[in-house]
Amino acid sequence: MPGWTSIVRFFMLAMTFMAMGPLDTTGPAAQSGDDPAGLDSLQATSPDGRLRITLSTPAGQPTYRASLDGREVIGESRLGLRFSEGADLDTGFALSGVERASGEETWTQPWGERRHVRDHHNEVVASFRSVSGPDRSFRLRVRVFDDGFGFRYEIPDTGERAIVDEITEFSVPGDATAWWTPAGEFNRYEYVYRTTPVSRMERAHTPFTLRLPGDGPYLAIHEAALVDYSGMWLDQRRAGKLEADLAPRHDGVRVRVDGAFNTPWRVVQVAGDAPGLVNGSDIYLNLNAPNRLGNVDYARPCKYVGIWWGMHINAYTWGSGPDHGATNKNTRRYIDFAAEHGFCGVLVEGWNIGWDGDWFSNGDLFRFAESYPDFDLPALADYARERGVRLIGHHETSGNISNYEDQIDEAFDLYERHGVRSVKTGYVADASDLKFIDEDGFAKYTWHAAQERVRHDIRVLEKAHARGISINAHEPVKDTGLRRTYPNAMTREGARGMEFNAWGSPPNPPEHTAILAYTRLLSGPMDFTPGIFDLMPHGEDDENRVPTTLAKQLALYVVIYSPIQMAADLPENYEARPEPFQFIKDVPVDWEESVALQGEVGDFIVMARKDRDTDDWYLGAVTDEEARTVTVPLDFLEQGRNYTAEIYRDGEDTHWKTNPYPVTIEQRSLTASDTLTLPLAAGGGAAVRFKPAGRAGK
User: Fold this and answer.
1) Selected catalytic residue, list 169, 499, 592, 646
2) Which residue range forms the structural domain that includes residue 535?
3) Residues 123, 278, 233, 602: what is their CA dihedral angle, to the nearest 10 degrees?
4) What is the rounded CA–CA span in Å between residue 624 and residue 681?
5) Which of 8, 17, 180, 490 is the most exposed place for a label (fewest CB within 10 A)?
6) Among this protein's residues, is 579 annotated catalytic?
């Protein structure tokens, strides 16, 4: 007969699980659990057995650590949450139980880097219960994949609370090499990447990528499923001790919750080399809930052109006047160009009332359903439709959430009536100056990554879906894989894009895109806006120029993934160089499969992708300021088939600074058994289309 202690422990555990509610219904079914009695620590391993996560409670402090092949990759790191009132969830705990499960499935994306995504993981749900102080409990759900792990807090209902600190830590060596941008600064995510030891890191954005001392392994720290919570930064408290730092709300609180809640997943990717991070980034999608919108056939990948780059190089203006870009005449010119060359749409910025005056500082000016007199939206939409093209909408808010939400139904209804199926939104404002009006009518200001903005973005996606509209968000909340749940969130900005080469000080360095591939792009698609053919729009001696070769601009269409991809330059610059422009016309934006073949963070990357609609493969290679030659095995191609490789590469004397334009275009017959050697100029690149021989071109 069991003793009274065991009976009491059993009933306490049962009451805890009842208070917490059901397990995550999107996860796998639970299997047999460990005996909670006397549980000092527990472990979870990846399906291949190489990655191991250990949970324990030394001196009552919940902690975790991680190892790969027996080597520690995350040292002992604290877990917990603290609240403004009531009991904290940080110390005085013991492990009280565990449930184990595993899952393996393959699911299909409506669009994406690959059609089919494999989700294979092991899971533990660890229960923690207080052994001292007030009666408290929580669960930690841990999912371990072969290429990383994620965990989230699952907190029972104790009413309304305010989170003031999440003390989740990531303990890494201080002498690891890190690639990062500063967080909590005015310019949101739009900073040049820094390469430093971890010990010299300041507060940083995620994805935060690092290489452990020696040759790795490589880690990327990020989050998944950011819903009704504030975005996570990383703050270094002591050398190598990185702590979750949540973007503040307008009231200084980090997160407000009411009832039971789950945090976003805290995610650590682990890879033996830099390309392994790219190839393992499906982890963020797998940690998000499946599509909850239903039919999203309107969210169609495509390439577009736009009245955009001309404003950045001062060829015309957003505001009204003699140089206004968004005119009927100019828009028809872009529509004609798009129709002639097979682009799906034309983005038009500056068409609606609000761009005159100090729009950056006053989002109240914008009227999202009222056009300037020289822009006839209904007539232009009809003209575009007649030519097989659509207008792409634009809503710049200057960070004024309330002004946008007050007009959003009318604005989306207008677009729906005229066949606009994609809208680019913008939130240009200093990072802590997102404006909204509270319930008492007072203006309040919050951070771009704060809980208020996260909630706002989901409202926008839901309202857009009701009208069959997809969203391309600029000045966004970072991507956390939520596009799986809301597939009309097709792409976003969230890093320094092409426009910084037009007016940034400094412009993006040549290594920028060779860092983006292993940092920002791990989290999801980016509307980087490649394809600039006039690389010196202000002249050879101006600081602001595009620091790449022309061939690298082509390669970016393969290296930088976005399901809606812009050919960003002016039509006349493409018409002047029709031969390299052909690659932009040919390259798809929706993929059957994607694989990073070679590379090193900040140095270079070689990326291959297979078209979703044909048997063609595409390859893109980009390098930093150093010239290099890459030799690429072609074993990603189908065995037994002959391919015609259409190669666009840097010329022999090409250099991003002194001679960026020469492009050598050639054809070769190749198979999966061959290798392809590509010389990359300083700041250069190469783009290749592989067509099965004998098949007519697309």
Assistant:
1) 499
2) 515-520+527-698
3) 150
4) 9
5) 8
6) no
